Amino acid sequence: MFQCDAMEANVRVLYLLYIYLFFWYNLSVFNVGRLLLLGFYRTGEEHIYLLTKRAFDLVSSALALLVLSPILFLVGVIIKVESRGSVLFKQERIGKQADPFVLFKFRTMRVDAPKYALHPTDSDDPRITRVGKWLRRTSIDELPQLWNVLRGDMSVVGPRPEMQFVVEEYNENQRARLRVRPGITGVWQISPERSLPIHEGVDYDLYYIENRSFALDLAIILRTVFSLIRGRGT
Questions:
Q1: What is the pLDDT of residues 137-169, one digit of tens each?
Q2: 185: phi then psi, degrees, rounded to nearest 5
Q3: Contact status, residue 162 vs residue 169, Cβ threshold 8 Å
Q4: Cα–Cα distance for residue pair 180/209, rounded to 1 Å
């Protein structure tokens, strides 16, 4: 209807290609007769990057778990002393290619809090324990996910993993997040919009997936460290 009205008014109509479809490939344009054809291909550099990224994940997560083991033990003791229940919070999340996995975090909420309820948005949420407020503010509650990285469920850098019921409501753009391993930190986590729900940061995730490189991963990690030092968390 809009197109017809515009043409009748002698207004030029232009169309924007659905560019997210082209984010995962290099694009070539060919002229065959009077036809304009698009070709897609991946470069061999991506395979080198993926191997480098996995090697970095293995080494960094193993070293971090070893070096931080005294802190992890101390945090576990503090959680246990303050409230009854498990030290670790385990929850099914959706990873690469929509494969489910068990995500590990330090428990920051009371044991009677619903496991798959909406994420607390207020530090005064009554479900959060006193120790949990500090763990969330410093992001120490995320440290057990280094085990997920070591296992290959996650990467240090990547889109945050979501719960099954959220993924079931994904649109086509949001499902593109499932093309890569989820991460502990990423572009969205260091952005000004990190307070929004994870799935609303899809543009940040798509940007990362399109432009990911080892240099970008290191830059994101450094920015995350600086944010933690300044007390912003991830």
A1: 888 999 999 999 999 999 999 999 999 999 999
A2: -135, 165
A3: no
A4: 8
pLDDT digits (tens, 9 = 90+) for 68-99: 999 999 999 999 998 888 999 999 999 999 99
**Tokens representing 156?**
């240090």
Distance (Å) of CA 218 to CA 56, 63, 185, 193, 232: 10, 16, 11, 21, 19
Q: Burial code of 102-118, b = ≥16 C-beta within 10 A, e = fewer?
A: ebbbbbbbeeebeeeee
Can you give the residue ranges of every domain in the chain?
Answer: 44-229
Q: How many residues are listed for the chain in this entry?
A: 234
The CA distance from 112 to 188, in Å, is: 30
Work out the average pLDDT over 103-115.
87
Pairing of strands 26-32, 183-185: unpaired
DSSP string, 141-204: GGTTHHHHHHHTS-EEESPPPB-HHHHTT--HHHHGGGGS--EEE-TGGGSTTTTS-GGGGHHH
Q: 61: which residues sit within 8 A by CB, 6+ positions away?
A: 146, 147, 149, 150, 156
